From TrEMBL:
Lineage of the organism: Bacteria, Pseudomonadati, Pseudomonadota, Gammaproteobacteria, Pseudomonadales
Region annotation (Disordered) ranges: 210-232
Entry protein name: VWFA domain-containing protein
Occurrences of domain VWFA (ranges): 416-605
Domain of life: Bacteria
SUPFAM superfamilies for the chain: vWA-like
Amino acid sequence: MEEWVGFKWHEYITRHAMGEFPEHAVHLKDEARTLGVLFRALGGDPALSLVVAEPRHFRTRRRFLQKLAGTHKKFELAWRDEQSLRLPDRLALFPSLQLNRDLYLWLAALASQGECTDDGWLTSNQAMVQTLLSRWPGLEPVYQRLVRHTLQWRPDPGTLPEAESHREKAIRQALIHPGSVESLPAADSDPWPVIIWLYPTLSPGKISGQIIGDDNTTSKPGGLEKKRKRRRAERVDSFDKDQGLMLFRLESLFSWSEFIPVDRAGDDTEEEDADAVADDMDMISVSSDRRESSSAIKFDLDLPSEENDDLHLGPGIHLPEWDWRSQSYRDNYCCLHPMLSKESVPSRLPDHLSRSAMTLRRQFSALKPLRQWERRQTEGEELDLDACMDREVQHRRGTGAIDQKLFRRCKKNQRDLACLILADISMSTDTFINNNQRVIDIARDGLQLLSEALQASRDPFALFAFSSRRRDHVRFHHIKAFDEPYNDVSRGRIQALEPGYYTRMGAAIRQATRLLQGRHEHQKILLLLTDGKPNDLDLYEGRYGVEDTRMAVQEAQRAGLTPFCVTIDDDASEYLPYVFGSNNFVVIKDPVQLPLQLPKLYMNLTR
C-alpha cells in the first residue's frame, strides 16, 4: 500500500475529480497490442475490435462531489458487446504506473469471459471473476492487489447515508469474496463506479468512440486520407452526429472506404429497418477533394433499368449465407446474378502497360509446359533407338534378360494448377489515390498485367468481378471463363469495369468456389482483389459481413481451394487475419504498385 501513503480518501477524490494522477497515466493506444493478445489468449472472441469507451454519467448527492463536478460525474468504464471490447482511453486512477497498467490487463482478461446486462450486473461480474480466477489462478495476485487499491479508492461506508452505506458494503463484500452477494441494496443515487468490473452496453444513441487497432495505431473513418487525397461522401440532408456513430467507428476498423454519415443504428436488427436504410442511401452527394475541388457529384445508387443494365446471363443463382448470431446458414438467402457488360468492346492492351506486359510475358513464359521424352517405356509414341540397339546386343551375346522397354513417349511438364481471380468493383473503388488514378484504374491495370502473365505461362485461369446491392442482387461480372481464350474481347471487358454498389463478399466467394470445384487440377487458387471490408446496405454490416466472409473462406478451404486476398487497405491487418488466416493475405502499401506486384505475388504463391 506504499502508493497510498500520504493520501486521504477525500484528498484522493479531489485529485480524481480534478484530473486524477496524470503523472502515472497509461494510454490504451500504448497497451492495445498486449491487451488484444491477452484477450484472445484467454478465450476472448477474436472477431471483437478494441474500442475507446464512452464516458458514463453517474448521479451523486455527495456535497463535496457536487461542489467539484456538479450532480453528475463522468467515468470511462469497461464494457463489451457483440462487436467490440470497450476500454477507457486513459487510466490514471491510481498513483502508480504499474497499477494502472494492471487494471487494463485485468479488464481485458475479465472481458474474455463474457459480457453483463443491466439486470445481472452484480451477479454476472462476480461469476466472471470466479470463472476467470479458477481457469487462470496466476491472475489471483493481480486481482487481490487491484481490489485492495480499489477499496481505498471507494467511499467510506461510514460517511454515506444509510441506504447508500448498505449498498457500498455489499459491493465491497462482492469485491473481496466474489459470489457471496446475490443482490444489491437499493438507494436513491448511483453507486460509486466499480472500476474493475464490466458494465452493461450503452444504448445505441449514446455510443461513440474510436477504434484502437492491434498494431498500436488508431483507426479513423477514411484512414487513408492522412496519406492520400480521397473523396468524401455526405448525406444530402442533415445528419445527427450523436446517433448511430458506433457503427461507423466500427466500419473504420474493416474498411478504408469513405465515411458516409447515415444513421444505421437499426441495420442489424430487423430487415425492414435495413430496407429503410437502403432506401435512404439511394442518393448521396459526394464532394471530391481532388485538387481541392468544391464541386459535388451525385451518384444514383438505384439499380439501372433493364434496358440500361448489363446483360444478365441466365436466371439468378441462389446461395446460402452464414448468420453468426444463430450459428446457422440462411438457405437460398442471396441471389447472385451472372452479368456481362454491354459497354465492352474488343480492345488492345493499353499503351502504358505494353512495356511491363512484355517483361512479364518473357518471365512467365519460362513456366510454360515443356516437352520431355521419357525413354525405355513398355509402350509409347516412337521406338527408342538406343533401347533397341541395347536389346540387339544382348540378344547376340545371349547374356542376361532381354529388355522389353523399347519405346519412348513425350510428356508435358505441366503445372497442375488453376486460378480464379475475383475483383471487388464496389463503390469504394471510385476513390482517388492520387491526382490521376482511382482505385478502379489500378485494379484494371493489375488484372490486365496478371492476365498477360498467365497467358504466357499457360496456366488455366478465369476472371470475374463482383458488387452488390443487398442480398437479392449480387452482381457477378463475367470477364473470362476457364474455357475461353484471353484475347482482345477479355481485355475489353476488363477495361469496361466500373465501380458501383457494395461488397457482399461471401456470396461472391461461394460462387467462385463452385466454379473452381469443377476443375480437375490438383492446385486450385482463389485470388481475391479488394480494397476493404465486406459491407452492404442491409444486415451485411460490421461483424455480420465479416463472419459470413470468414465462413465462405473456410468453405473454400474445405473444398481443397487456396483462398488468398490481395488488398490495398491500410487497416487490413486488423481483420484479414481473422477472415483469411495470418498467411493468406497481403497488403500492398503503395496502391500504385499493385499492377506490378500482382504477377509477382502469383508467381510466389504457385511455386
